[in-house]
Task: structure prediction
Amino acid sequence: MKEHSFWSDTVEAFSPAPHDWPSRMDVAIVGGGYTGLSAARELARGGARVAVLEANTLGWGASSRNGGMVLTGLKASAGALVKRFGMETARALFCTSLDAISYVEQVVNEESIACDFRRRGHIELAYKPGHFAGFIREAELLQKHFQHPVRLVDKAHLGDEIETDLYHGGLVDETSAGVNPAQYAAGLASAAERAGAWLFEETRVTRIERSAANGLGFDVVTSRGKLHADQVMIATNGYTERLVPWLQRRIIPIGSYIIATKPLPPELAQRVSRHRRMMFDSKNFLYYFRLSADNRMIFGGRAGFMPANANTVRESAAILRRGMLEVYPQLKDIAVEYAWGGTLGFTFDLLPHAGTTAEDIHYALGCGGHGVALLSYLGACVAQRIAGRRIENPLFTLPFPTAPANLYRGNPWFLPLAGLYYRLLDAVS
Ligand SMILES: Cc1cc2nc3c(=O)[nH]c(=O)nc-3n(C[C@H](O)[C@H](O)[C@H](O)COP(=O)(O)OP(=O)(O)OC[C@H]3O[C@@H](n4cnc5c(N)ncnc54)[C@H](O)[C@@H]3O)c2cc1C
Result:
């Protein structure tokens, strides 16, 4: 079994053009995933001198390792958003997710990125009969109050979507899309470079300080040298460390793991996913799964909350394979060829956040498993804001919470407890 992302084997690694180390830039962006690259493309198209500073290779983080699900909605359900924020803000938040998908579609088309972006829709699958009752309420809310079309599929008709006995119905949303995430990341890097951004790999930012010269702008200290930037943006999501402690206290890094099988015979692939949708279930410890373009079953989940070690990917692969066979016993003879993991960025209110810190550092992060579209879009919105445009979006103005009483400083000690709590919820809900 190969212990790296299947998607990375489907794309030529993108090598950025070499540049001499710049002493000055208009904007320095820390992190070369969707957020940073999307912001860089937008800024460079507006004529700014932008450097993307990536500690590893471009797209190395979650952006080349994810499930490639380009989903409507946020981590919190529409119903939960209405309860917390009222109808108007909830609708605005939900609409952001729709705008984000359209944004990705537009970029993919404008830049001719070959990344298998297709609006195949998603289906959420009810793990318990009571979860389907929740789907009925969610569907009514989405249709009546958000004017967003979705379709319920009861257990008797679930075979039209997926060949499994495990689930108790589904909620189909045709607006969602699927993408090959690594091809999208490489295409975005290439587009940012074509627009004029300077992209630096193997360049870790170690310190950001107000400029010593005149207090205007920032000195950005990196493993390659120092540069002065008028503005700085943090685009490190689940890989956020101590660079900006205020952000680190607000982002919870959580590992997620994926296996990819050998390609399924076409007839079997057709049975396990009739419409090749993005699929996920209604558990807190959810499974998410889909077919790749070459008919592999890509099956992911949060296999464990404990800190990762050298065995974690292998152990996670075994857990995920058991999960896959729970959904699809008919895949018992199909070998798992790849297993890998990556780090998601969660927040304490389960919402993404974008904006500017008290030190005038820009950021967009924290989408959980909805970052493919949302962080591409929010990265571009932050770029527009840096360029002086007014952005009307609640994700820029909602309070960005951290844990009470300074209980969290970047070491998520509470994750094993949270894992137990969510497993218990899954057992009793
Ligand atoms: C296994 C998995 C499955 C997922 N599935 C989905 C899905 O199906 N759909 C969906 O919408 N979302 C999914 N996500 C989430 C999605 O992938 C992320 O939200 C998104 O890729 C984040 O993009 P980003 O650019 O903000 O961060 P990343 O792509 O994580 O990039 C951050 C980068 O910052 C760099 N960095 C960190 N610190 C420094 C530093 N000091 N100096 C320089 N560089 C630094 C890192 O090297 C990294 O490359 C998944 C995530 C994982 C891990």
User: Anything to note?
Assistant: The chain has a mean pLDDT of 94.
